[in-house]
Amino acid sequence: MRRPAAAIGLEHARRRVRDQGREPVSLQRPDRCPPAPAPKTTVRGACGIKDVNLSPYNGLIACGNLPIFKDGKGCGSCFQIRCTNHSACSKKPVGVVITDMNYELLSPYRFDLSGKSFGAMAKSGKEQELRSAGMIDLQFRRVRCQYAPGTKIVFHVEKGSHANYLAVLVKFVAHEGTIVQMEIREKNSKQWKPMQHSWGAIWRVDRVEPLVGPFSFRLTTESGRRRIAHKVIPAGWTADTTYKSDVQF
């Protein structure tokens, strides 16, 4: 998503934070947010995710600044946003997913919204009027990610992966939306080995000895919840390929 002009955020009006992960983090804080052009399917932002205009994101996405993006570990987190101080605002909350980062250091919390996300906050027929406002104050809170029934966690083996290096993008994580630890288990092994956070929503492992598939992954969220995707990547895996698991939080 192209990063539009800088905006100045306002001091927070109220902040209430519960145990992050076990309960949604509730933040109500005015912020200013400009609209951005509709995302393109081929664009990969700082989270490494593309096709954000397709299901399940459907273009309802946002860039977050550092406290939201969290050096990539905020990728996939979900927020409700709403605007109330513009005549075109519907005052109804809209759900967005963090898929990129913005770099302006102008307010404690800042979102750069896709054009669709921005327009979704408007009254019917007032979408373009709201987008034309350029920057608006909004309220937001972190919420659980809820995808359509049947949506499972997906693993994409990144380009450049080979027998000694495996980089995997993780997406469509429900509930908390993010993971803080990822481990791999190889064929005929009982040992879970830690993977390194590479960038965005991508985790990697590299070593001298060849990696032997199929691979299982163990994911851990902020609250300590765990899920295991057994043998989700087959022995004959190929780079730049997506593999769907049968697990979800």
From TrEMBL:
<dbReference type="InterPro" id="IPR036749">
    <property type="entry name" value="Expansin_CBD_sf"/>
</dbReference>
<dbReference type="GO" id="GO:0005576">
    <property type="term" value="C:extracellular region"/>
</dbReference>
<comment type="similarity">
    <text>Belongs to the expansin family. Expansin B subfamily.</text>
</comment>
<dbReference type="InterPro" id="IPR005795">
    <property type="entry name" value="LolPI"/>
</dbReference>
<keyword id="KW-0964">Secreted</keyword>
<dbReference type="Pfam" id="PF03330">
    <property type="entry name" value="DPBB_1"/>
</dbReference>
<keyword id="KW-0732">Signal</keyword>
<dbReference type="Pfam" id="PF01357">
    <property type="entry name" value="Expansin_C"/>
</dbReference>
<protein>
    <submittedName>
        <fullName>Uncharacterized protein</fullName>
    </submittedName>
</protein>
<dbReference type="InterPro" id="IPR007118">
    <property type="entry name" value="Expan_Lol_pI"/>
</dbReference>
<dbReference type="InterPro" id="IPR009009">
    <property type="entry name" value="RlpA-like_DPBB"/>
</dbReference>
<dbReference type="InterPro" id="IPR036908">
    <property type="entry name" value="RlpA-like_sf"/>
</dbReference>
<dbReference type="InterPro" id="IPR007117">
    <property type="entry name" value="Expansin_CBD"/>
</dbReference>
<dbReference type="InterPro" id="IPR007112">
    <property type="entry name" value="Expansin/allergen_DPBB_dom"/>
</dbReference>
